Amino acid sequence: MKNVLLLVSLAVSTAALGQGGAVPTPQENTQVSPTVLPSNIVQKGIAATYTDVYCAGWMSPKDVPNSSYVLAGEESPNTSRFYKNDSIYLAGSGWQEGQKVSIIRRAKDPNLFEIYDEQVKEMKKAGTLFYDMAQATVSFVLGNSAVAHVDFSCDAIVPGDLVVPFQERPLATFHPRPYEFKHFVALKGATKGRIILSKDFDVYLGEGKKFYVNIGSNQGLKPGDYLRVIRGYAMKDYDPADRESLASLDYEDDQLKEPRTEPKRFSEIPTRSLGEAVVLTTTPTTATAMVTYSVEDIRIGDRFEVMPADASGTGGSN
Question: pTM higher than 0.85 for the full model?
Fold first, then answer.
């Protein structure tokens, strides 16, 4: 019986070879692995738009007179808020048809809370906060009054908002970030400053948020400059709640004779980078900037240093 089975097996194999059907052999896996792209942390970032630049606001010790302002709108008194394509009435003098104007507003912080030590003092030194509200073109003049068409609006215009001549602003050049963001880096001799307030009075800031700083063109700052926002570990760098945590000396109840981590030693820890921002506008003593990239929340009171043109050559580690 075994001989018969062997003959049958040989016959089947011979028939298969006769028909050209070679016994299949395992094939090598020639599939190409997909290319793994580097982290988008290298390229991530946002550019400032026309709206970002012309709706950012500014701080200045120089006030604006009340001589020219929005008196009403075409639908007043039924409507007290006006937007793009609305007609508004201007009070003042020296109006000319075709004249382009900006509508601005003095703003005040309703919170009445000092976010960091000496914030109130630094805000008084920086001056008044002005919001950009809209741009309009004078279309009709009658005596000391004028009608203007709202061409562009950042927010609702209301009676009492101030009117000033329109001024062109340079659009900040986008920083392509052809380098890896460095979490710890020391910029020797860099110009430094502090974030003293933000648009809409936010305390914590992320990408796209605008803020105001305590240095300006007198210190060499100009539109298009990039800032590296930083935060240290010294007591002065934290708000009152965080200071309590920082001052805690007991971490685990099973530690025995551990070295004391005195809070004053925290000032020796390297400063960490929180993100980057681009300067939108400047005055001699202040500047307005926008967050373009952040790895964690940026807070009012955080400090910054002006980045060199070739930020990739600053050293440090990610």
Answer: no
